[in-house]
Amino acid sequence: MSFAASAVIHRDHLRHNLGVVRAARPDTCVMAMVKANAYGHGLVEVARALSGADSLAVARPEEAEALRAAGVDTDIVLLEGVFDAPGMATADALGCELVVHTPEQIALLAAHRADARFTVWLKVDTGMNRLGFPVAALDDAERALRDLPQVAELRLMSHYASADAEDGAQLAEQRKRLEARLARFDGVVSLANSPAALRAEALGADVPPASDWIRPGVALYGISPFGGVAAESLGLKPVMDFETRLIAVRDLEAGDRVGYGGRYTAKGPMRLGIAAAGYGDGYPRRMPDGTPVLVDGQAAGIAGRVSMDMLGIDVTQVPDAHVGSTVRLWGAGLPAEAIAQACDTIAYELVTRVSERVTRVYR
Ligand SMILES: *Cc1c(COP(=O)(O)O)cnc(C)c1O
Fold first, then answer.
1. Ligand 1 neighbours by CB, cut-off 6 Å
2. How far apart, in whole angstroms, are the C-alpha atoms of residue 160 and residue 165?
3. Residue ranges matching CATH 3.20.20.10 in the chain
4. Among protein residues, the one whose CA lies closest to atom 10 of ligand 1
């Protein structure tokens, strides 16, 4: 029995969530996002569990290398493309699909061996202003790519900035920028991330027309992309249980202070548990007193500033709490979305920042 923090990853929930997303958009292919160590869940194991996806997408060539080295043979998309000739050679050797979003990347492709054959996703910027050719530059970029022997198939991709927002104005604006151009594009198109794919189910309104490929990330991990909509109500199951154990329990009296800076002061007699997880494991230091945790399945709240390896928990209401009690920091019964809200971030960041020393246990 380990007393260190662990992240239990439920493979069956990954597959279940993929099914939920597929059922929501039955006529589309699924490009499953496994970038950033599969949102902290473990790149290779998640990729294996998601073998039912039509392709996988990563941000860096190194991630694609790790997948191929582990024997994953699903198609892999490099979401940012490559930036130099060695990167292009790697993408070629690994059989990756490329996103192309700059003129420099077109030139790199043109300079690569002429008998290479890539599936290329031409990225168009419709208003997010992150990656992509402006709509006005699309004709030239498309022409240049269609002229290259290295481009076996040309596809189109764009990304929404606010698909999770109840107010669909920016979404509609982005969609409108592309509308006319889409009709003239001969090839498949990918627009929707998790919130765009599940918008109808979650918010009921202004569904963007389905694209040929959807690109779910966070939904596959059982996290709701919508502020006010619970994952459970979308039929999603949380994939990660972030857990540790109590390594000490003590009694405090009124006025006793807890942890660095003495941020928490006992209001009366209380029991304090010390759990073996801290910001060194990815549990944010800025979590406020009272942030919920589950101790042996019962509700409790943190007390005192989170340390590097430990945190305090008021276990007064959990009389059976003892050294060895299980502490759930988020997961089943305690959505990461709610914990994220408590410290003013999003669940994406919480799960992605679970640190390397935390053992992932696959079930
Ligand atoms: C990360 C990412 C996604 C997935 O976004 P979610 O909100 O996690 O579904 C989709 N498309 C692109 C380009 C991305 O970078």
1. 33, 79, 159, 193-195, 215-219, 225
2. 11
3. 11-234
4. 193
